[in-house]
Amino acid sequence: MIKVKVPATTANMGPGFDSIGMALQIHNIVYAEEIPKGLEIIIQEGSKDIPTDENNLIYKTIEKFYKIIGKPVPGIRLIQQDHIPHTRGLGSSAACIVAGLHIANAMSHSFFSKEELVQIAAQIEGHPDNTTPAILGGMTIGAMDEKDMKYVKVPVAENITFAVMIPDFTLSTELAREVLPKEIPLEDGIFNSSRAALLAATMITGDVDNLPMAMQDKFHQPYREDLIPDMRAIMEESRNHGAKGVFLSGAGPSLIAVIKNVVAFRREMVEYLKTLDNNWQVQMIQADQIGARVWVDEELRF
Ligand code: HSE
């Protein structure tokens, strides 16, 4: 039996659109084993909408992996325990891709390294900011072209907590990408590139006083604001309650605040969020520093 545990991820951290992401301590667990033939998928925990046929994203990724290695896909049973909320900007699709790659790697005895899986996962997803931290943990900064992806993993300081604010409505990444402009003004390019460099350096030095500026963005947040009711107000309220930085997680609709005073922030934001039309939950979550883990017959392999 193969067991894979994959973390949630936030992408587009601050100014790092399609580049900077981080793993979070919410996990999906998937058990997989070979069966004589066919496909069996059991959803033990998670949304009823998860496909249990060939359209299942974990299975589709397994198929892609077997195509790469030029072998037929064996009969497979998958048991999913999903805890990452779907279509909320917390990397649930990336978690499926990463789970599928690790399962296929172990099942086919291919022994691809983490480095190789990072490259394949980024090419499948099309951007590296969810799949890379999902595999490696921590915060990752990645840049890619059609052939290659270069990245750096930055460990996240233990004293930083993330208040993940998750609404009861969903937002498809496809729609959230459609509203983005094809071109951006030079001054917005300068705004984001300076802040992205500052954010990367700040996560290494731990100088959190830089974060209010280092977390700013003009590439995607202003364009996605209209798709997320109360986004601007929640971000402002988070700053008023001491958040060092606050950003749209991935393509949204979840928002994440970087905080140090966990108890006060949670208490005050829970009260504030109750006043809004939609239902928002607040979860205090640390970064996952390890990334995806794989056990084969209960022995940790990866
Ligand atoms: N970087 C991606 C985007 C994350 O914002 O569209 C969602 O997949």
Describe the structure.
The protein is globular. With 302 residues, the protein is an alpha+beta fold. The model has no long low-confidence stretch (mean pLDDT 94). It folds into two domains: 2-154 and 288-300, Ribosomal Protein S5, domain 2 (2-Layer Sandwich); 161-285, Alpha-Beta Plaits. The longest helix is centred in the middle third of the chain and has 20 residues, at 186-205. The strands form two sheets. Strands 1, 2, 3, 4, 5, 6, 11 and 12 form an eight-stranded mixed sheet that branches. It is built from ten helices and twelve strands. A hairpin with a 4-residue loop joins β5 and β6. α1 (57-69) packs across α2 (92-107) and α2 (92-107) crosses α3. Helices cover 34% and strands 26% of the residues. It binds L-homoserine. L-homoserine binds next to α5.
Main beta sheet strand tally, sense and closure = 8 strands, mixed
What is the name of the CATH class of the largest domain? Answer: Alpha Beta
Percent in helix: 25-40%
CATH architecture of the largest domain: 2-Layer Sandwich
Which ranges are low-confidence, i.e. pLDDT below 50, for 5 or more consecutive residues? none
Distinct ligands, ions and cofactors found in the model:
L-homoserine
Label the structural class: alpha+beta
Number of strands: 12
